[in-house]
Prior knowledge:
Chain B is mainly α and 94 residues long. Chain B has helices at residues 4-25, 29-54, 58-90.
Amino acid sequence: MAAIDWLSDALLLAGGAFFLAGTVGVVRFPDVYCRLHALAKVDNLGLGLVVLGLALRADSVTAVVKLSLIWLLALFASATVSYLIARRALRRGITPWSAERPAPPERAP
Amino acid sequence: MPELPIALALFLLANLLVALRWVMRGPTQADRMLAALLFGTTGVAVLLLLAEAGGVAELLDVALVFALLAAIAGAAFAERAWREDRRERARGGD
Amino acid sequence: MTIARSPSLRSSRLWLMRAPLFAALWWVLAEGETRAWGVGAATVLAATAASVWLWPPSRAHLSPVGLLAFLAFFALQSLRGGFTVALLALRPRLRLRPGLRVLPLRLPPGAGRVLLADTLSLLPGTVSAGLCDDELHLHVLDQALVDDADLRAAEDRVARLFGLELAHA
C-alpha cells in the first residue's frame, strides 16, 4: 500500500474519532450552550479531516477544490446556525448551566 | 483499504442517530434546534464517504448542495434576526 | 490598490474582477467538463450581475489576498477549536466552568460584526450568542480557555480584511 493511501486512511479514521468525540460531548455536556460547542466545533474538525482524507484519494484537482469548498460552506453554516441557536436560547431565558449553581436549565416565565 | 469509506459512513450514521436521539430528548426547545447542526456536518460527511465508496461522483454535488443550503438558511435566519433587532430598538426596547 | 474614479469605471472594474472568479467556480463545479460551456457562460454572467447588484463596491473593499489570508485563519482556528473542545469532552472527569461574557465591540456596525460573531463561534472557548448595540454576547465553555487577547486578535483580523477602522474601546 502506498504511503498516500496509508495517510488517507489515517485522516479518515481521525475524522471519525472527532465525530465520536462530538457525540460524547453532546451526551456529557450539561446544557444546550455547551452542546453547541461540541457540535459546532468538534464535528467541523471531523468533517475537515474526512475531507482531507478523501482529497488524497481524489483523481482530479477540481474534485479537491470542490471538497474544500464544501468544508468552508459547512464551517460558515455551523458558525451562523450556532450563533442563532445561542441567541434564541438566551432570549427565551434559558439560563446557562454553571458550576457554582448547578440548577437544571429552565425557561423564564 | 477500499472498505474504509463505507465502514466509516456507517459508523458516522450510527453516531448521527445517537446524537440525534440525545438532542431530541434535550430539556429545552433550543436543544432540538441542534439537529440542524448535525445534518449540516455529519450528514455531509456521510454523503462524501458514500460518494467515494460507491464511486458515485454525483453524491459530491448533493453534499455541496446540502452545505450550500445550510449556509443560505443560516444567512437568511441571521438577516431576519437582524431586522427584528432593529425593529425592537426602534420601538425603544432594550 | 487604487480607487477608481467614476461609478461606471468602478462597475466595469468590478465585472472584470468578479467574472473570472465565477468562471473558475463554474469550472470547478463542472469538474473541468467543457461540453456545457454555453450554460456555464450564461450562469457566470448572471452570477456576476447579481453580485454587482447585491454587493456594490463600498468603502470597505476586500482584497483577494486578504480574503485568502482570512480563510486560512478561519480554517486554522476552527481546527484548534475542535481539538480543544474534543479533549474537554473526552476528559474522564468533566470539569467545565461555563459562563457568559460581554465583549464591547470596536468594529463599526455591519458585515464586519457578523463575521466576527461567526469567527468567535469557531474559536476554542467561545460561541457567539447575540449582537446587541455595541456589544457581543458570548457563551464561554470554560473560563480558563478564553483570553481577551485572542478575541481582540480576531477583531483585528476582521477589521484588516474589510479595511475598517477600529474605535477605541
